[in-house]
Please model this.
Amino acid sequence: MNRFLPLLLLISGALCVAQSGSIPAPTNTPGQEYPRILPDHSLIFRIKAPDAQNVQVQMGKTYDMTKDADGVWSVTVPPQVVGFHYYSLVIDGATVSDPASMSFFGANKMSSGIEVPESDADAAYYTVQDVPHGEVRQFRYYSKVTETWRRAFVYTPPGYDNGVTRYPVLYLQHGGGEDEHGWVIQGKADIILDNLIAEKKAVPMIIVMDKGYAVAADKKPYVQAPGEPVDMNRAFSLLAFEKVMISDLIPAIDRSYRTIPDRDHRAMAGLSMGGAQTFYIVLNNLDKFAYLGGFSGVPGGNGGPVINTKTDFGGVLADADVFNKRMKLAWFGIGTEEPGTMSQGMQAFREAITKAGIKYVYYESPGTSHEWLTWRRDLKEFTPRLFKEIK
Model:
């Protein structure tokens, strides 16, 4: 009977998994069974670390793991909302990524991530479908502002390489602590646009996703010491990034891609920090943009000072009639479960511009917080409103 023991143990283990109804997270590395997701969206984490004295999972909150006789640590985390979550392991005080999960750049570091899946129907718009697909390309360009080579990711719509058509452009920015990978990897922007274009809900467009940090060449470079927390005030200059966008990136894109190079066919949007950047750059450069979108991000940042519509941005919001004629679309979105300062900042901003007579479209993502599912939904709602004059 001993020769059947491994098989019996395997069958027993499989039955336990089946009875639990759990599934491996779709963000696991190939062949990994953990983390697992239970039907109620509780999460099971495991890692083998026999010599460790203390192991935890950090995912918003910190959860202590327990060790079995084989040195395997595990914990079941309470139910989580659907969508994308960053997390890390803490092993004897050292914060590390989970080798069983894919890693993503967020919170200023590479972190593990776990996708708690929605229903197939709800997730269809950001799931690869049998439709024509565009491409995401790396675009290198030299910035005279920073005197460095920079990289953006550029989405070109289906059929771009097979014709002579010129396209409008959406400049789409990530949030604080993320980079140009975010909208492609976590945000699934290319999949969303492929599906919307196939359904004829959005017009074909180019999307440019750049890194939202810049330090002008005439400023002292920011060097982060090993293990030192990132000082965003030193690493990031809004004024420098605006100059990069206007002086370097937009001209380089217009030279390199078949764009329609005028304000009526150029939009900008961003999430959180990228939303604040969008307002700053668009409202200071209305000759360059006719559409703007703020996803969980408003002028001054979340929880910052309320906008003065009479004086801020050179007074471009002071005359609502003039602004409403120039701006083809001002669009704002937020999750219903976002933290207080973010929600309060958005509502205070809305109150100010409503009082000033500024026209805008507002959207709330039901049941989501300050995370990627909110922003995927924002992109799905925002892009069908762009460039509708194109037939």
